[in-house]
Design a protein that fits this description.
This protein has 143 residues and is an alpha+beta fold. It is globular and about 40 Å long. It starts with 14 loop residues before the first helix and ends in a 6-residue tail after the last strand. A six-stranded antiparallel sheet has the order 1-2-3-4-5-6, with helices on one face. It has three helices and six strands.
Length: 143
């Protein structure tokens, strides 16, 4: 589980906002289902800044998590990124990284019964209809 900086607290978890978001995704993108471990973290600490903010990608790049998104903001960031032709609607952001990249769940090639991998959406490297991502973990628990 993430440890969060006690001086950078998130918001109370809004179950109603979560159910609304889940219902929306189930209607339009039924394969999108939030990971139970991710939801457990959000119910404990909805958003905020992790205590350990830096992680390394497989390419060896160090990345900085600025904020884990509260459930109330997931759809805002998903919509914002979705306005870019360089984003894919089956990427669901859950954290903002330094310099505007997003940490996302990747549902594009998800097989039934599997949990989505965690990827970094590299907004500056992405082009129209060609989002560039880098896989950082097989699922949220591994991340």
């Amino acid at each position: 589980m993430f440890d969060f900086d006690p001086n950078a607290r998130g918001e109370p978890f809004d179950e109603e906002a979560y159910l609304k978001l889940e219902k929306y995704f189930q209607r339009w993108l039924p394969k999108i289902k939030f990971d139970d471990d991710y939801l457990s973290v959000l119910r404990h600490q909805n958003g905020g800044v992790p205590g350990r903010r830096i992680f390394e990608t497989p390419r060896g790049d160090e990345r900085l998590i600025e904020q884990v998104l509260p459930i109330q903001d997931v759809d805002k960031y998903w919509s914002w990124a979705g306005d870019s032709e360089a984003f894919h609607i089956e990427l669901v952001p859950f954290a903002v990284l330094f310099a505007g990249d997003l940490l996302c769940f990747d549902f594009r090639k998800l097989r039934r019964g599997k949990r989505p991998p965690v990827v970094v959406w590299l907004h500056e490297e992405s082009e129209e209809s060609k989002p560039v991502t880098e896989k950082v973990a097989d699922d949220f628990t591994e991340f």
